[in-house]
Amino acid sequence: MAESAFNLRLRDSLDNLATNHLERKLKVLTGEQGPWVEMDGRRLLNLSSNNYLGLAAHPRVKETAARAARLYGCGSGASRLLCGNMALHRELEERLAVFKGKEAALVYSSGYAANVGALSCLVGRGDSVFSDELNHASIIDGCRLSRAKTEVYPHKDLAALEAGLRRALAEAPQARRLIVVDGVFSMDGDIAPLPGLVDLAEKYRAILMVDEAHATGTFGPGGRGVAAHFGLEDRVPIIMGTLSKALGSLGGFIAGSADLVRFLTNHSRSFIFSTALPPPAASAALEALNILEEDPSLAETLQARAAYLREGLHRLGFNTLRSETQIIPVLIGGPAPTMEQAGRLLQEGVLVSALRPPTVPKGTSRLRLSVMANHTLEDLNFALAAIGKAGREEGL
Asked: What is the mean pLDDT of residues 50-73?
């Protein structure tokens, strides 16, 4: 039977991706997520995970999740507004609100759902959204779904942002203006200029929303995030975070005022129409919070490990762009040499992510190294030796 025109079109698109070294393929890992993982029967140093504190495989987190599965089952059965809302969800939201210094919090099934669900209902036609050009894809999609006028400003360019806010205020003073920004940028590993953003939001009567997906548990005092790092929790009305990275579980959340949470509960479609977070995931996130609060130095340990690796890369002559967190890019340039470098590192026993367009801008393909708090200095020295060797072989 001849292939359909639809399948031929798919094949052409896939062939084009492969030719340009842009095709993505799934890796299959066995065993638990940790500093070292197993893939295809090989033990590999894991520098590709967002399990920043190593809590996804922490014995207490695993046991708590297993206990919740035995008590409540593996699924929640329905959306939160039907019969899926459980005491675990309420307890988790109360804990997250305190952790972020807010009145309330609302848990979603994923961080992506939290961003899309909040942005798409907080602003609409006639309003304006101002988004940093390096914001996460979930923010970009949430802005599009809101149907508000979206202005993408150059990365961390406060002057350009202010010009846009001034123009929007003059053109439609009664419309809503929302600034949304990653707290820690997921591809470059740098930090948002939050003090300046807060000042601009207040000056132009704009709402400020900060995505702390990669900052929750990893940055600031006790891992409470970038807003806490700058002491600005009271001046950032909307904070988004995830449970699936440093907290080692699954889900996302929005933290803010009680009225904000009440509004999202009634208007946020990705919350209303999604099945509630499974009980084992909610219970695991609660236990991860317990561990983090018992040992608030975990975030400091993580950042110290990241600084060690980053400084080692600098000594080897690699460009880590603007990184100042546990996310460390190593700039390569083109997709082909980036894939070759990742492949050489895999041969050397190091698993890294190769980022290419459209994930990153053309000409900035890179390796993205993710440090974990439970990487040892021996682990990181192993990585540096492998990266140095692969770089010399590639002439980088």
From this structure: 97
